[in-house]
Each structure stands twice: as C-alpha cells, then as structure tokens.
Amino acid sequence: MRVLAKDLLSPEQIALVRKRSDLRGTWLVFHAWAVIFGAMAIFVAFPNPLTFILAVMVIGARQLGLAILMHDGAHGILTENQKLNNFLSQWFCAFPMMAETGAYRRYHLKHHANTQQKEDPDLVLSAPFPITRKSFRRKMIRDITGQTGYQQRKAQILNALGPADWPLAQRLSHYWRKLGRATLAQLAIFGVLAATGHWYLYFILWLAPFLTWHQAITRIRNIAEHAMVPDNDDPFRHARTTLANLVERALIAPYWVNYHVEHHLMMWVPCYNLPMARRFLIANGYGTRMETKESYAQVIRMATSRPDDQDRRGEVIHNARKRRVSGITSEGFTEDQNAA
C-alpha cells in the first residue's frame, strides 16, 4: 500500500517540510564534530572515570549522528546544494564512519522500496524479535565490550583487502578502492588530535566509542525502528516513531532519528524538518494511525518480552548475528550464521 504526500499534507505544508537549508545542514555536521571534540576537551581538562564514560557515550552518540547525517546525504536532502550535500556527506560523515555514501544509498533505497517485505535488506535486523532478556543482555555485552564492532571492522577490512591469494599490489589496489578515502579520514582525525598534543585520544575517545557505545545504540535504534511493528504492509505502521526526551536525544537518538514513521512516509524530508512533518500529520488527523512508542525503554521491554525459559543459548534461534556482525551499513548484510 502506497501513500502519496499530497494525500497527507497540503501543498503549503509540503513546501515547508521539503525545504532544505545549506546553512542548517552544514551547521548540523559542524555541531556533531564540535560535540565530539568538546567531549574530548572536557576529559582532557578533567580526566577521571566519570568524564571518560560520559565522553564515550556522548561521542558514540555523535558518531551515530554522523551516520544519520550521511543517511540524509544519501537521500540528497542534507543541504539544498547537491555538491555541498555530497561533500559533507562523504568527507565529514561517511568516511570518518568507515562508510561510503553512494554504496549506502544503493543499499538503503532497497530498504525503502521493500520495507518489512522479504526483499528488505534490513529485515534481518527486525525479524528475530521479540527475544529473551538473556539474549538481549548477551547482545548488549558484545556491543559494549567492543566484540561486535571489532568483528564488523575486521570483516570490512578483510573484504577490502580481497582474497589472500591475490598479489599484494592487487590487494592494496582493491583496499584503496574500498576503504582508501575512509582510511585517509581516520588518519586526518588522528593527525588533528596529534597536533593538539593528545594523539592518544584517537584510540580512547574515537575508536573506543566507535566500537562500543555507538554499536550499542545502533542496535537499539534498529530495534526501535522496525522490530515488532503492527503491520508490515501499512506505511503508517511498518515503521515506528519513538518519542525521545533530552537525555535520549543526547545519548541514543541524535538529529531526529527517532521520527522514523515520518521518514518512511516522506523520505525526501530533511531530518531537521521531521518534527514539523509530524506536527502537520497529527494536525491533519493521522496521529492515531502512526505507530508510536513513548520511550526507548518501552520499546526494549517489548523487544525482550519472550520468556527467559525459552532462551536456548547456542542453539538455532535466528540467523541475524553473523549478518549483523559482518554486514556494514555501507554495503548491507549478506552473510549467514545462526545466533542467540
């Protein structure tokens, strides 16, 4: 079932939510990096376990924010100027996150075209739920301890290097095509931090959040967006909007990523206009049709509603673990392995 924007909003409302801003898109990218480096600076000024943990969480959330802004860039809606859109999305959002906007666009548009259908490449992320609390706990432990992030990056790098029996020159050429510019972005971040005299921050407050908190909240976001939606065929109910308070917006759901129903109804709306789109939809009488939860805690309770006595660690429960581990947002999830 398809729903057209002209059936949901007035022409005046469409014009407002469609409007893109070079200034606002650029500001959001600047804001993400300012928060990242600001959190690092606070830790340097006040080095203690509390500021370290807080910095990891804040930076990990802004890393997710960079992925969200890359997502808007892949839709061509981060800024009005498309050259600026692509430049910001690639060099300041995608490459630092070891992704690539064009590859992500090709993968992600398949998700929009086939949301919650068998052809949806993201179906692996939502299909296994609900799960047990024990299973969810194991997943979060893998994320927080860096196991998931390590396995993802390992698979990504090995894929970029190509088969081991290739000549070295061929492997390096393949790596450059796949991850060369992303590697340059990592070297640039390291260089900036080294120039300040704090090179070690690259490892403890860039890589560590990237491999830990960023992974955990990406999992939570994936669950919230499509897991256990009421109707896989209804565009108002095959995605979910999760209302987020200030703390959740700071540490889990930056840059309006929680407005997911609105995004699926009108994927050409920039992230900074999604709250306006929701207000218009509610004013036009569609509020009760949209799948909405009050908080991420409510979603997690629903996602972990399978009784623990049904938990069978190590047995075949679903095939999402390896696909989630070795798949990446820039190239999709393509491998299979059973997981609990």
Task: Please tell me about this protein's structure.
The chain has 340 residues and is mainly alpha-helical. The chain is built from 17 helices and two strands. The chain has a two-stranded parallel ribbon with strand order 1-2. α3 runs antiparallel to α4 (49-74) and α3 packs parallel to α5. The longest helix is centred in the middle third of the chain and has 28 residues, at 168-195. The two termini are 34 Å apart. Mean pLDDT is 92; it is low at 315-340.
Short description:
By secondary structure, the protein is mostly helical.
Largest sheet: 2 strands, parallel
Helical content (DSSP H or I, runs of 4+): 55-70%
The helix tally amounts to 17
What distance lies between the first and last C-alpha atoms, to the nearest angstrom?
Answer: 34 Å
Strand order of the largest sheet: 1-2
* Sequence of secondary-structure elements: HHHHHHHHHHHHEHHHEHH
Q: Layout of SSEs?
A:
Layout: H1 5-8, H2 11-18, H3 22-45, H4 49-74, H5 82-94, H6 101-113, H7 123-126, H8 133-144, H9 147-161, H10 168-195, H11 201-211, H12 213-226, E1 241-242, H13 246-251, H14 260-265, H15 274-283, E2 292-293, H16 296-303, H17 320-326
Parallel strand pairs: 1-2
Features:
17 helices; disordered C terminus; mainly alpha; 340 residues; single chain; 2 strands
